Amino acid sequence: MEFGVIQSDTQGETPHVGTQDDDLIQLLTITGERVHQQTYSPLVEHLDRAALEGLYRDMVLVRRFDTEATALQRHGELGLWPQCLGQEAAQIGSGRALAAQDHVFPSYREHGVGWTRGLDLRKVLHQFRGEDHGGWDPADHNFSLYTLVIGSHALHATGYAMGVQRDGDVGTGNPERDRAVVAYFGDGATSQGDVSEAMVFAAVNDAPVVFFCQNNQWAISEPTERQSRVPLYRRGSGFGIPAVRVDGNDVLACYAVTREALERARSGGGPTFIEAVTYRMGAHTTSDDPTRYRSRAEEDYWRTRDPIDRLKLHLVAEGTAPEFFTALDEEAEAFGEQIRDYCRSIPKAAPSRIFEHVYAAEHSLVEAERAWFDEYEAGFATEGAQR
Amino acid sequence: MSDAGGIQRIPMAKAINLGLRRSMERDNKVLLMGEDIGKLGGVFRVTDGLQKDFGTTRVVDTPLAESGIIGTAIGLALAGYRPVCEIQFDGFIFPAYDQITTQLAKLHYRSRGALELPVVIRVPFGGGIGAVEHHSESPEALFAHTAGLRVVSPANPADAFTMIQQAIASPDPVLFLEPKARYWDKAEVDVTAGDQALDLGGVGGLHTARVVRPGTDVTIAAYGPTVATAMAAAGVAEQEGHSVEVLDLRSISPIDFDTIADSVRRTGRLVVAHEAPVFFGAGAEIAARISEQCFYSLEAPVLRVGGFHAPYPVANIEEDYLPNLDRVLHAVDAVLAH
User: Fold this and answer.
1) b/e per residue, B89-110, with b = 16+ CB within 10 A?
2) For residue B254, is the peptide bond before it cis, meaning its omega torsion is within 30 degrees of 0?
3) DSSP readout, A269-296?
4) What are the two backbone dihedrals, phi and then psi, of residue A136, each rounded to the nearest 5 degrees?
5) Is A75 touching B (CB cutoff 8 A)?
6) Which one-letter DSSP state was computed for residue B216?
7) Is the CB of B253 less than 8 angstroms away from the CB of A137?
8) Is the Cβ pair B72, A204 closer than 8 Å?
9) Tens-place pLDDT, residues A259-316
10) Between A and B, how many CB-CB pairs are < 8 A?
11) CA distance B273 to B222
12) Closest by alpha carbon to B74, among B119, B136, B41, B29?
């Protein structure tokens, strides 16, 4: 087929894709050529070169953020960092297809999606610096807090979508009103019962939710083959959910398939399952050592499929001036510096935070323990004054 | 329902049904979800007739998936709804334990107050009905141990009617434990008294304990199904010349320690009775706190009566497991002997 990009025989060693490639949707080859695809090409026709440059800028800046955060972790400024390196196209492409009123339930490496929602990415650092369990108000950008228990939020997204249905914000035909919900999770999460239950609830309720699975090939050290014997997108049919498998390193294809799924959800057509075939180029988190479980050859194979390089080749061929790339490099460098400075300026949480917002209404146990702690702390102050 | 008027003598299951109905009439964001709660009205018929009157989008028959019920209820709450989930039996709550403890209980805290999770989880709990395994358990301590959750249990129809409405009005998630052995006990309920006080604290609030029988020699603290057992024990003790005060705690998280301490300062003796295993149970917490707070008022160690550190037994011997009248009286005699 025309979009047979991921060929298992190109590099000698079989790369870790773990799946057949026949159904992979692709609109941009690894050498930057546009591919025509009957269903999805029309959905990106309106994206002119400036728009493509915008997507490129998104990916470059998100990668700069991600590499800076990784460096900050190495310098002891963050306790942990989950990199999104390599997954920029899946996140930017799908994220840019969303409408402002759509709501996103992310896992914990959806920095690129957060960027497309208008989230100040520096806020993400609060959680990984150990100063907050979140860092932003979900209502500000319709972007929920990160979820660390794998797959839990697929149910939250489905329930939220059931709320959207009850609000009557589905199928009205009004593009300002109709809403969809997106749950982002990885290949490992598809093994979790909650993700299956979410698909059951979504299907039987026709909930306006899109399950966006970034199959980055590895759930820490477990390859996708340890999660599934069939390509993940095929799970959809068992639940009665339309499913599509897309080249997750192709920003245009990710945009197109997500747009199509969102339109179906908003118009009352129910859920969609998207498997974006991509690759986590970094470690699972900075605590991980991928050299213990995957080969250099595999990483090299995927490096040739870098989502940013691919779009750059296309833009250069289409006539984007070299000055664009130079200016963007400078912007990215300045952005990196901002992130570094900000990270070090995040204030330390006050101990009283322990007792704040445990409950929405007063709870006598929390009040009693808070009072005890305040008195205990005040005791040190008095001691100090007496010395 | 208000047409029936005034005070009715109804069983607890009906009282909860009327409380749910009242809450759904008051706030159209309240919706019920669970397995078999629609046409069937729930396996205990607590939701009987509600789907007929409120429709299938407000009384939702869910797929058979407990984690799915709680997880989607979280999403609905985030979208502005007030879901009331039914878990069919106590022993089936564990597939949802992760959603309850890692998500529902913590999202308010994690978001620093930006999110509220007004979700109620109704669970028919406790034993004494001759059921098969997983149908008679008392998991309250596991949930009371989880910060962010509230745990309550009514002991009589009037409280059940009020407390379910208070739980639904609560901005926090509430585990609402319905003592299934008491579902059919009838008592008078004022089902037309204006809107019930929906306060959480204060007199009659969701988290206040109540002296249900005054006494001077011994205090028995109980909740849910064990309150009736404690009342029966107090009656027998009276015939033996002992004045027993009975407290209905009503709330297990938080616990109204002030009411317990007031009582113990008067009686000097405390017995805590619950069906859950004694080890690491609510009684352990109460005994420890009351020992701290009332050390100089206590005439005897605080004794606990409850389940053993064993799985809930087969139905034919459950009477030997449960804190029945004799075992409560045995403890009362023991603290009086000091």
Assistant:
1) bbbbbbbbbbbbbebbbbbbbb
2) yes
3) ---EEEEEE----S-SSTT--GGGTS-H
4) -145, 165
5) no
6) S
7) no
8) no
9) 999 999 999 999 999 999 999 999 999 999 999 999 999 999 999 999 999 999 999 9
10) 149
11) 5
12) B119
Q: Which residue from B minimizes the CA distance to A209?
A: B75
With beta carbons less than 8 A apart as the criterion, state whether A209 and A181 touch: yes
Give the one of B75, B106, B200 whose C-beta lies nearest to A158's C-beta.
Answer: B75
Of the listed B108, B135, B242, B274, which one is catalytic?
A: B135
A365 at interface of B, judged by CB pairs closer than 8 A = yes
* Token pair for B177: 């434990």
Q: How far apart are CA A187 and CA A209, in angstroms?
A: 18
Does A364 contact B at CB distance below 8 Å? yes
Query: Phi then psi for A368, rounded to 5 degrees?
Result: -65, -40
Q: Is A343 helix (H, G, I), strand (E, B) or coil?
A: helix
Q: Which residue has the tokens 């879901």?
A: B83
- Assess whether B135 carries a catalytic annotation: yes
pLDDT tens profile A58-92: 999 999 999 999 999 999 999 999 999 999 999 99
What is d(CA B207, CA B153) in angstroms, rounded to the nearest whole number?
10
Contacts of A143 in chain B (CB under 8 A): none
Q: How many H helices and E strands in chain B?
A: 12, 14
ipTM: 0.94
Nearest residue of A to residue B173, measured between CA atoms = A359
CA dist., res. A209 & res. A269, Å (int): 10
